[in-house]
Amino acid sequence: MTVTPERTRVRWDYSPAPESADHVRLRDAYGVFVGGEFADPRSGASAPTVNPATEEPLADVAVAGPEDIAHAIATARAAQEKWAALPGLERGKYLFRIARLMQERARELAVVETMDGGKPIRESRDIDIPLAAAHFFSYAGWADKLSYGLAGRGAQPLGVVAQIVPWNFPLLMAAWKLAPALACGNAAILKPAETTPLTALLLAEICQEAELPPGVVSILTGDGATGAGLVRAEGIDKVAFTGSTAVGKDIQAALAGRDVGLTLELGGKSANIVFEDAALDQAVEGIVQGIFFNQGHVCCAGSRLLVQESVAEAVEAKLWERMQKLRLGDPLDKNTDVGAVNSGEQLERIETLVAAGEEEGATRRTISCDIPERGHWFAPTMFTAVSPVHRIAVEEIFGPVVSLLTFRTQAEAIEKANNSKYGLAAGIWTDKGGRAFEVASALQAGVVWQNTYNHFDPTAAFGGYKESGFGREGGAAGLRPYVRVR
Amino acid sequence: MRTVRRLPHVDRVAIEERAATLAKRSIKAEAKQQGIRLAVSMLDLTTLEGADTPGKVRQLAAKAVCPAPHRPEVPSCAAVCVYPALVSTAREAVDGTGVQVASVSTAFPAGQSSLAVRLEETREAVAAGADEIDMVISRQAYLAGDDARVVDEIVQVREACGDAHLKVILETAELPSYDHVRHASTIAMEAGADFIKTSTGKAKLGATPGVVLVMLEAIRDYTQRTGRVVGMKPAGGVSTSKQALHMLVLVKETLGDDWLTPERFRIGASSVLNDLLMQYEKGHSGRYGRAEDFSKE
Amino acid sequence: MTPARVAVRKTYKLYVRGAFARSESGRHDPVLDHGSRHVANIARASRKDVRDAVKAARKAQAGWAGKTAYNRGQVLYRAAEALESRSAELAQQAVDLRGAAPAAARDEVAAAVDVLVHYAGWTDKLAAVLGGVNPVAAPFLSFSMPEPTGVVGVVAPEEPELLGLIGALAPALAAGNTVVAICSERWPLAGLDLGEVLAVSDVPAGVVNLLAGRRAELAPALGAHRDLNAIVDAAGDAELGAELDRLAAETVKRVLRIREAGDAREDSLRRLEALTELKTAWHPIGA
Predict the structure, then answer these.
(1) Closest Cα of chain C to A274: distance in Å?
(2) A24 and A112 in contact (C-beta within 8 Å)?
């Protein structure tokens, strides 16, 4: 038999697969949402929110000032008593309505989230929005079961809670904050991040559709000054903040001497630990998921890759090969893996730290890909020859940059992993269950993923140790920050 | 006492998650049309029934040679795949067209005959004109932990193939775990397989995305380590265009663009061809199709 | 003058395996209202129907238990949505059939919807409340988690026919069990209508099976079935209760007795726990 000549090789590429945005209707301008209605901000100020992939403005949103804050607090206070007095089941039913409305409007929310923040549509569509709806659904069910979640003790809501959320998971973080607060009978004032206000404003519309009693939820968009003002305002009973450690410390200091509850969910430099006996191909996938998911704009990102030295070469080679298959580009394209960096400021921060890494002597490898002309982009990057003392191994980069360090023994891995002021998350890759649990017990991290990474669920408590913050979100633990237990 | 085997580690949850994520790749427009043509060119158009006759095989072969007469840019399939008794008919039907003749052998699908019989069957099929032999590993040996026997049989069948290429069917549905799929893939390659293949198509499950991904990863490591290229063939369970294109995505994103060729990747199927042609037509006409517009053999 | 429109009257069938079927026995029973007026016929279930229903429930159980708790919660919530959408009709039916006072009838249906909402919110919380990590005095990770007991039989009370039935089967479903239920004998229509509500609520076929007929015939048949894991006795009949207890002893079935139809929400944890099994597992902590 003759061997057939090789057929012509075809280069098969994916065609553009844009998610359509023409069913999305955004207003030209949004006011503040207080007392169940949108209104022009009393501050008189507004600012555009911009699509970071195209640098085009999407809408104008209010920049709330001190008068808006005071007004929101008063309105919330007035509504909170009746809200808390409702039977738990009835409160829960409002939250169930919100969850269902989020599911009905899922596609619109996903497209807006991507346009406003820059993350790939595949992530907004498959992760952010479904989890946000699920969070409301889950906490809806707690509203009439609080005593079961609080060890049978009677609980009172705190009152009016101020909640500040970041730009990396705008709607999801809003859900993580609002759902438990409302389930427990509090009224909430939410301040979305400056660069990503839109899905919170759509959530306000959903609250209207659900006929949530006016005043129970307020949305005050604005900038850093708005958040700072909210935290320092009179009449709030609690602050919940997710964002940078620096601002978190600032808030904690600002609340000194005041009887205001506080929970913080801050930064991280989480260790993703790969042992010799791990399923290596899956570990590599988990590394990618850990640091390139959402462009690395994740507080619990696995940004420090700790690999057992005996498999470091293999992991590095596989990781590099895998990174080159990441598709960077238009966030609205369904095949995009890596979207836009959220803002010019964030891009600058990433570039500064990456430059520091190169200066410090680490070896940088960045995948080559077509970078769009407009917008903010950073291509997935790996650093090797990294020492624990390097800035790129210590400071949170909050971008698609992974630093690879090695270790020899389990004890060394644990020591290195814990050697950080942060303590948010960690990953452990091993085939041995006993090792997974032993290392998990030893890590100073609030979330430990074993043979996986970046999985979230409304029932699974999430939060940090040390300077990654305190307080938990998710599960019964997520109720406790929002009640006073008798 | 036989040495107890050490299995490689594969994480089931992670593998299935990865395979599912890759199913979300959106293949539209020109990419879809091109992908469909590519998939057609990779088909081993198969008939393996007790009721197969020369007439049936000739009709199948004609379809494999020219699947879409009114769309000349749609290529021939890679091969026809038949039982040994029908190899000479198939050979005659495809001679000169570039379409290969693949024959199953080794007491397909169960493999429960003596080695002597299985080798003789292989030699007969090759003599009758088979370009490729699809053998089954002895699950009897594998599940009893006798890896040495599994490997030895593959080596002997490879020898009996002569110039014909050997595809080794693992029958993944009968293997206990993904760890075993990876392990069996590796020992089959070390024993000289030219292709590793998921299934006979006769078991309950065929080529699931998870199994295909595990085997592609096994090939990646083996080829990297030894420099020898081994091909992959999913069979059974690929009945829609969507599934076929998903297979191409798995190959592209695991092994790379170099592997998107019938020399290195085949799909063992029959009914998927008409679905591919139907989707191809829709790509041209914009209309959702119907079965009657495509010939059935 | 146009003649009066002839109404299309409803056939009431059993709800088994996700479909509506007559009894395999072909028998029927007339349904009389509170004034002994004939209102409808229902299919009168037989022991063989009980057998088929249990078979269907067993077949569906692994799939239902295998769904995420979130998914089960969504299905129960959807059932609440569907029931709410028919609340006016079902309330009116109680007035016409049983002679209930309109306000009380409306309250009963509303309460039934609220029971479904309440249990929809339990599905993803049961593990946290009933289970947990056990701090054993040895280097092991030990955890206990609740699992569904399996196939649950339900004998509903005569009244309130809708609320009583839902209060008995919602806990079973929320915990991941599948159900074979015997509806109120005197007022069976609401129970059979519940089949329609469930059929539009993404409840997989076989997860809930609803039978109507003679309780004295069906309840012992159900209680004696060896492939039932638990029986929920909401019938409120001491003699029947004792018989069900005796039958349960043959295969060590779990028995949940419900005496008060009205406190399905207050009594929820007791009902849920009775229909779960707690599994404790241990794994070494050590590399």
Answers:
(1) 14
(2) yes
